[in-house]
Design brief:
about 325 residues; alpha/beta; TIM Barrel; four-stranded antiparallel beta sheet; 10 helices; about 30% helix
């Protein structure tokens, strides 16, 4: 589905409820690990590039934040063959972390992104702890709001197992990154982890300022005409509405287990979905696959959440956080 922009949209003046009273201007303002978000809605990593294309459709400064396309230390061309495959109520992807590398990002994208009135979240992946550390040290040289550490990458020194599968392996990488990272550190958890609660607690114990979850689920598609897997790497990441109930459950479990703030994501396509994640304990929500359905979806979510607060006569979104 495509959306034609009708001009800039202004969400800053509040929404009118049925009683005629307006929601306070800062009713969606959210604090996350000492970082102030004008609203708790963020475009998720891997679905919005570095924001330039979306900014041609609407003013992305209306958002709470933007998580950059996942970066690796060195540039990556991404995977060959089919990269995206639609499935029932979702999408599978095997993009392969195509990106310009940390240095390329700093040289070509960072100044523009950091000039915006928006929380700048930089997502970083790696295939060895050494890669992570060198990438973090480069990013220490710039001013960003949050570093989101993607631990779903395969560890080449551990036979390809993702850092985020085994709790103790994740603990090790978070500990070593925390020791060198000068920024607020949020760890993005894999839903394929052996124990999502233990993983969340390990991240907190090793000094993470927050966690985000969930990343994509490991999935598969088969081309019955060719009698082969759809993707060259056989397996791919599943996202979209199909995963929402599981992502919501995992967010709820993780939020109940830790004292650091949580960013929740996974299949959010309506403001009601976003409210559910807030009620499950998330302070901030990220929207990913839904952006492909409607590039302005995040604005509808913001408007809907504000109208909901008016209808419930609430002064701030924090009043429902973790109420379930």
């Amino acid at each position: 589905m495509t959306t034609e922009p009708s001009g800039p949209r202004d969400l800053r003046s509040g929404a009118e409820g049925s009683s005629g009273s307006s929601c306070p201007e800062d009713c969606l303002k959210t604090e996350f690990a000492g970082v102030s978000f004008k609203n708790p809605v963020v475009l998720a990593s891997g679905t919005c590039g570095f924001g330039r294309e979306y900014n041609e459709i609407f003013d992305i400064q209306l958002l709470g934040g933007l998580a950059s396309k996942g970066l690796t230390l060195n540039p990556r061309p991404g995977n060959e063959g089919i990269r995206v495959w639609e499935t029932a109520s979702g999408v599978m992807n095997s993009v392969g972390l195509e990106n310009p590398g940390v240095r390329g990002f700093i040289e070509k994208e960072f100044d523009w992104l950091n000039s915006l009135d928006i929380v700048n979240i930089v997502n970083l992946g790696g295939h060895s702890i050494e890669d992570y550390i060198e990438g973090v040290e480069l990013l220490n040289g710039v001013e960003l709001d949050i570093l989101e550490l993607n631990i779903s990458c395969p560890n080449v020194k551990a036979g390809g197992m993702a850092f985020g599968i085994k709790t103790e392996l994740a603990r090790e990488v978070v500990r070593k990154i925390r020791a060198v990272c000068k920024h607020k550190l949020v760890v993005k958890l894999s839903p394929n982890a052996e124990d999502i609660v233990a993983l969340a607690r390990a991240c907190e114990e090793e000094g993470a300022d927050g966690i985000s979850l969930v990343n994509t689920f490991l999935a598969m598609g088969i081309d019955i005409q060719k009698r082969t897997p759809v993707f060259q790497n056989t397996y791919a990441g599943l996202s979209g509405p199909a995963i929402k109930p599981i992502a919501l459950r995992m967010t709820h479990q993780a939020a109940k287990a830790v004292h650091i703030p949580v960013m929740g994501m996974g299949g959010i396509t309506t403001w009601q979905d976003a409210v559910e994640f807030i009620m499950a304990g998330a302070a901030v929500v990220q929207i990913g696959t839904g952006n492909f359905m409607d590039p302005t979806l995040a604005l509808d979510v913001i408007e809907g959440m504000r109208a909901y607060l008016v209808s419930q006569k609430m002064a701030n979104i924090a009043e429902i956080r973790g109420c379930v």
